[in-house]
Structures are given as C-alpha cells and as structure tokens.
Amino acid sequence: MKKKWIRITALSLILSSMTAVSAFAGKWAGDDNGWRYVRDDGSYQGDGWLEDKGNWYYISNGYMKNGWIKDNGKDYFMGVTGAMLRDAITPDGFKVGSDGAWLGPESVIDERGFTTPYDNHSYFLDENSLELIYDAETDYAEELGRWGMSDIRVLAALRGVYPVSGLNEKEAAVYQKTAEFLSDFNYGLSDREKAERVYEYIQERAVYDTGEFKPDSDTIYGVLVLGKSECVGFARTYKLLSNAAGLRCGISDNAAHAWNSVMIDGEWKGIDSSTIGMSSSFYLDRKGFSCPICGTSYVFGARESAWTCPICGIEYDNPGFQ
C-alpha cells in the first residue's frame, strides 16, 4: 500500500464556535485513501463532525481527518486515531481546551533554553501506520511508549515543539540528559562522525544489565539515568540521540535481540551500542550484503548468524558473525 503523508499546517489565530453533525450507528472502514465511517444502512457518513463512542471525529471529503482542522473559525487537533484532543497539549506543543479548541497563541511553550538546527520542523502523519514523523529527511520518530515513557514526546520537547512541562518524571530526566548531550554538540560533523559520537556517548554511560529483568531495562531512562539496560533500551537510546543530532535512525530486531540501523551518507549501517567495549568502526565499516540471486540488499546485525532472503528463500551466513 502506498504511503500518504499529510503536513500539519500552521494554526490560524481566529477563534469562534464548533458546529456538531448528527452521529449514526456504524463502524470505521479503511481503504487506500484513509478511513470512512459506514452507517448500519451501508451509507457513508457525510462531511462534518461525528461523535462515536464518546469521541469526536471530523470528516472531510468523506474521510477521517488527522492533525489540525479549522471549523467555524476555531482550530482543533485530531489525534493519530482521528479522535479530537480535549484538555490536552497537542504533539506540536499547543494547548486545547475542554471543547477541543486551541486556547490561543499564549499557549505556545518553549522551555528549553537552547536551540538545534532541527527546531520546529513540520510534522507528518503516516496514515497507514498512524505514526507521527518529524522530518522525513532526518528521522522517523514512531511512538515507543513502553514502560511509562514516550520517546516521541522527548524528541518533540528537544525540537522545541512540545513543552518540557508536559513530560512525565522519567521523560523529563531523559530530556535533561539528552539536552546535556546536545549542549555542545557539533552539528557540522559528518554522518559517520555523528554516529560515532552517539555510540561513544552511550558506551561511556551504561553497561548491559545481566540481572533480573525490570521495566526500566527496556528504556532510555535505564541507559542515561540508571546507567544499565538491556538491548531494547540501548536501541531506543541510540535512536533518540541520533534523531536529535539529525541522523536517520531506526530500530532493528529479531526474536532475541534489538539493535539500530543508521543512515550514513545514503547507506544504512547496522550498529549495536549494547555491545560494551566494542568500537563503533566494528559496525560502521561493515559493507552491505546483496543476495547474488535477486539482488535484495541487507545489512547483517553483529549478532545475526544468518539471514534468509525474503525473495529467494535462500539462507546466507553472516561473514562477520562472532
């Protein structure tokens, strides 16, 4: 299915009132263009507001809207599920009231005390996976809300588009540690140098937690605040710091382990910051592998002993496996 991107536009300063449209029993149905509300009689809900199970949605051109919408002069934010936010702070740092309407320009908050080259980049919404994207050129910050932490909120706060005061206690602690990392960061470094700096920063601050599993073992809080974590926590930390420094970075995993894929000069490289004592060059000097039959490209993780080509079904050994 082809991905569609929606840019969340700038807010208007004009405020007035919302007009409701009658709701009908039915259900949501998705297609290549988005989500439509199908009534019990088989007809589609028309444009305007729709109340469903206590939440308000906005239909435009027959489909559910996400992000900012304007109705009768007021601005409302429709979340990633399409439901209107109420008494909340939007992902881009604006307050909305009990009726869902934006409270005005005085609600914009930036409490950082520092700036980065990536501040205030536009948000995008991947309609297929309902994930917010900060900047398609430098990162993709999917929601990782496991164990009481939202990585996307921390990154948004670092970008100046979400209020620091909106973070919970663990998120705020991670924000502070990451802000310290960024305080003297040289954004003019090459992709390779940025990737190495992030790797070294993590290696200097945490060890692999070999004890009994605890919720913080899978979080950035475990790495940057407690100084120990398991592979998922290391992977989440490397991703956050890399995205904050302007690198595209994702999380890769198999049934037993998690690591990162980071974009270096247009090429994805596998890197694993949880292997304490290993140099970053051990990963970044690796070359991509291509299936000799169909040409499918792949980058082995250091702990992957083999890879099966999804096209040909042929298994290949990892030449760098140790």
Rounded Rg: 22 Å
Q: What string gives the helices and strands in order?
A: EEEEEEEEEEEEHHHEHEHEEEHEEEE
Record field, number of beta strands: 21
Span between N and C termini?
A: 38 Å
Structural class: alpha+beta
Low-confidence stretches: 1-23
Instruction: Please estimate the helix content.
Output: 10-25%
Largest sheet, if any?
3 strands, antiparallel
Could you tell me the strand content as a percent range?
15-25%
Assembly type of the chains comes to: single chain
The rough form would be described as: globular
The average pLDDT score comes to 79
What is the topology, as strand order, of the major beta sheet? 1-11-12
**How many helices?**
6
Pfam families: Choline_bind_2, Transglut_core
Keywords: Repeat, Signal
Signal peptide: 1-25
Domain Transglutaminase-like: 190-269
Could you explain the architecture of this structure?
This protein is of the alpha+beta class. Helices cover 19% and strands 25% of the residues. The chain has 6 helices and 21 strands. The strands form 9 sheets. A 3-stranded antiparallel beta sheet has the order 1-11-12, with no helix packed on it. Strands 4-5-6 form a 3-stranded antiparallel beta sheet, with no helix packed on it. Helix 1 packs across helix 2 (169-183), helix 1 (151-158) packs parallel to helix 5 (231-244) and helix 4 packs across helix 5. The radius of gyration is 22 Å and the shape is globular.
Give a quick precis of the structure:
The protein has 322 residues and is an alpha+beta fold. The protein has six helices and 21 strands.
